[in-house]
Design brief:
about 25% strand; 2 domains; 13 helices; six-stranded antiparallel β-sheet; Beta-galactosidase, Chain A, domain 5; alpha+beta; 20 strands
């Protein structure tokens, strides 16, 4: 029975965790320069928020990264306690998004505020698509209403520009306690049919983490229509635009901990107020092929009156903040792999909420919270573990009788199974009775894997010698202690059991394999699992002692000493 449980655990670990190791290599970096404004995704977008058709030969390609160098006469800085945004008067692009609450972990700039936009960002680089004409506004000079804004209350920055018969006015409204920016604007000279505003979102987010490979692996595009859908940059192929056919409620570009997103919800029900009609991503080589980026453009409907509106989010993936925005924006942060998410996500969010509550409300370090959480889980599972281990003992007691039945009905498998089932019923045992309670901690363990993988509150959280609970232990102390605790737990669990070569092999193989797997896992996950193992040792010891007592009670009593030999005839007893 125990052997099958351990084998099940091995299979669960292989299926659930090994894929993350296989994905450690960063996705291949592609290089391409093509039109983003005239792809099939833009031509084939549905009616609501759809983009009007236009032939590809009239499209003007977006500027290459080398053309996006910021050469502006003015930079407008908008700041609050949460952010520092900087806009360029050349094209009205957002060229800086710094978050003072979060430090960069990147080597060489650790401790400085996290800047999430790359130097050549095309965020909010605009274009106009009307009929068969496309006009890009990246080099248009915009006149600002102010050169600096200190946001203490809702504040609006206005930008305007006119070129020939086309005039564009933009109004960005900021709030001091929110990363969401309201954008409204008008276009004059677009024509009676309106058009489409093309909004740049590339080339992605700047690396702010210690592990650049992990940053590249986590970069992706997320779109929300009926449900959120994530496409990682690694799936983009050389010279092949990847279309995303709308309409969408929002389109986002995410890294491991940060996200930029455009929202265009239809709040009036008219179908004209918003809706991102489509988006296209292309792979672009940047930073000397050390990371992955994508040139992304989204399309937003401009009404015949020339007005448009949307919202921009540029900030951290704080789950409560994302959830408060609505529109299922919290799904931009996927807790779990497809197939596991339905089970893992609720557990992960519950564990995250409890850890953050213990930290914020009780003032406990996250490491202390993990220790208490591990002990609490073992206390809650104590009765189930008792039942599981006693069920295993009962199966062990009937094992000799089960073996006799199998030998007796060696040639009749059906009869043997019937007799074995009858034996189990008589002794009130079941082969799976000891399995499922022992597997209950595993969803929690997997949930914690994603908590440390995706929760920004744990980013940079130090504990004892561990500089960051979301990163591996730099000296590998915790994974080694975890392996030793697992060995001790297995060794004690085998006390009183019949010698079995396979069990003896698992005694050494399983802890070694788990130690190897956990070497590069977040140290917080190792800490939690180590505490779980250590907290299980007293119960395992008590149950092993109980097994020995049951075996002693079940063994036959010692035979009485033989009677004295009868005296031979004729001999007298002295």
């Amino acid at each position: 029975m125990d052997r099958r449980v351990l084998l099940a655990v091995v299979l669960m670990m292989a299926v659930a965790i090994v894929p993350s190791l296989l994905l450690k290599k960063p996705p291949a970096v592609q290089s391409v320069s093509r039109s983003v404004g005239r792809t099939d995704s833009l031509r084939e977008a549905p009616a609501i928020g759809a983009l009007p058709p236009a032939p590809a030969e009239t499209a003007q390609p977006p500027a290459r990264p080398s053309d996006l160098t910021v050469l502006t006469d003015k930079t407008i800085v908008v700041s609050s306690s949460l952010y520092r945004y900087a806009f360029s008067t050349r094209g009205g692009r957002l060229i800086e998004a710094t978050l003072p609450k979060y430090q960069s972990m990147r080597p060489g700039e650790k401790g400085s505020p996290a800047e999430i936009l790359p130097p050549r960002s095309d965020l909010l680089g605009l274009g106009l698509l009307s009929g068969r004409d496309t006009v890009w506004l990246r080099d248009w000079p915009f006149e600002p209403s102010a050169t600096a804004l200190d946001v203490q209350s809702p504040t609006t920055l206005r930008l305007s520009s006119r070129q020939g018969g086309v005039a564009v006015s933009l109004a960005y409204t900021f709030r001091p306690d929110d990363y969401m920016v309201d954008v409204a604007g008008t276009v004059e000279g677009l024509g009676p049919d309106g058009g489409v505003l093309l909004v740049g979102m590339g080339p992605g987010l700047r690396n702010t983490e210690a592990d650049s490979a992990e940053h590249a692996r986590e970069l992706g595009v997320v779109t929300k229509a009926a449900k959120a859908s994530l496409t990682r940059f690694g799936k983009l192929k050389l010279g092949q635009p990847m279309p995303f056919n709308g309409p969408f409620e929002w389109v986002a570009v995410k890294s491991k901990y940060f996200v930029i997103a455009l929202f265009a919800p239809d709040t009036t029900g008219s179908g004209l107020n918003g809706g991102i009609g489509g988006a296209t991503a292309l792979a672009v080589d940047t930073a000397m092929r050390t990371t992955t980026a994508a040139s992304i453009t989204a399309g937003i409907q401009v009404r015949p009156s020339g007005t448009f509106r949307y919202q921009l989010y540029a900030g951290p993936m704080e789950y409560p903040r994302l959830r408060a925005i609505g529109h299922d924006f919290d799904d931009v942060n996927p807790y779990g792999w497809p197939g596991f998410r339905t089970i893992i996500r609720p557990v992960a969010l519950g564990a995250r909420s409890l850890l953050v509550w213990m930290h914020d409300s009780l003032g406990l370090a996250y490491g202390v919270g993990l220790i208490l959480f591990g002990i609490l889980i073992r206390i809650l599972l104590w009765p189930l573990n008792q039942k599981a281990m006693r069920s295993s003992m009962a199966m062990q007691a009937v094992a000799p009788m089960q073996k006799q039945i199998q030998e007796k009905y060696k040639g009749d498998a059906l009869k043997a199974q019937q007799e074995i089932s009858k034996l189990w019923k008589e002794h009130n045992v079941h082969p799976l009775g000891g399995c499922w309670p022992m597997l209950l901690p595993w969803p929690i363990l997997l949930a914690f894997f994603f908590v440390f993988q995706n929760t920004i509150e744990l980013r940079g959280a130090a504990f004892l010698w561990l500089p960051d609970l979301s990163r591996p232990d730099p000296v590998f102390v915790i994974p080694v202690v975890m392996g030793l605790s697992m060995f001790a737990l297995t060794k004690i669990g085998q006390v009183g059991m019949e010698p079995n070569p396979q069990m003896k092999m698992l005694l050494y193989v399983m802890p070694g394999m788990m130690t190897f797997l956990f070497l590069k896992f977040p140290s917080g996950l190792n800490l939690y699992y180590t505490v779980m193992n250590i907290a299980s040792l007293p119960q395992q010891w008590m149950l092993s002692k109980e097994r020995l007592r049951r075996q002693a009670a079940a063994s036959p009593a010692s035979p009485p000493p033989p009677p004295p030999a009868a005296l031979a005839p004729g001999k007298k007893k002295r």
